Amino acid sequence: MHEVHKEPAMQTNPIAMTVAEAKAKIGVGTTKFYELLNEGKIDAVKIGRKTLILTNSLEKYVANLPRRPVKR
């Protein structure tokens, strides 16, 4: 019998994303996003010239935002 080797499935929750992906995910513009980065509220890493946002940092930031009731 022949063994079938499968490629590992793509990660559904990547450990990092681009700035554009992160901005879109939380719905803020460029200026606000870079404010959050500069204030240390969201963590990023550099790989060469590319800035990547750590997914767990972004999720933690959103999870810690104050909760407000939605008005209709």
From TrEMBL:
Keywords: DNA-binding. The keyword Amino-acid biosynthesis does not apply. Residues 17-64 form the Helix-turn-helix domain. GO terms for molecular function: DNA binding. NCBIfam families: excise. This is DNA-binding protein. It comes from Azospirillum brasilense.
